[in-house]
Amino acid sequence: MEALKAIFIDKLGLEQHHYEKFAKEIRFKEIKKKQFLIQEGAVCDFIAIVTSGKLRSFVQNDGVEFNNDFYLENNFVTAYTSYLTQNPTNCNIEALADSEIQYITLKQFNKLIEDDFAFLKLAKYISDIFFIRKCRRETSFLKNSAAERLELLYKTYPGIEQQISQYHIASYLGIKPESLSRIKLLTYINK
Predict the structure, then answer these.
(1) Quick one: what percent of the chain has pLDDT higher than 90?
(2) C-alpha to C-alpha distance for 82 and 20, rounded to whole angstroms
(3) Which InterPro entries does UniProt cross-reference here (predicted)?
């Protein structure tokens, strides 16, 4: 909860009572490895923060999985488009290790905002995080080589190479695992 408290007070300039009011609404959930937080076709009605563990978001096409995001400790996690539209999601969010999250439902969050517009700062902060990550990823696929996308991944998620399997990283980059191995070897040789 300390990471969340720091966001409220240090990043957003909200006061202790805002954090305490939010914390009263927070629920906790444990997710076992390979368990889904949400699956394609469900409507997402929560925003969460990962307190421990790691999760991935992926879409499926013709039985093939394509990773499109990772959620590590202290990252917000949600199927954000579904959350905003209240339409079924087209993605799956799965735990890559036993994980714990703290979450708030859409209904609870909207009630907090209705009672105190200061909570809009948190809503904007979360929205900005997801928007920026999405834009960076899209732009990297249009402009960057796989090696440059890997470098961006390392900057976006420091230490990810020790937490996430090469198979999942390759999927996120849109390449095969053997291509990832070549890129890493060439990067090592050129340093």
Answers:
(1) 84
(2) 27
(3) cNMP-bd_dom (IPR000595), cNMP-bd_dom_sf (IPR018490), RmlC-like_jellyroll (IPR014710)
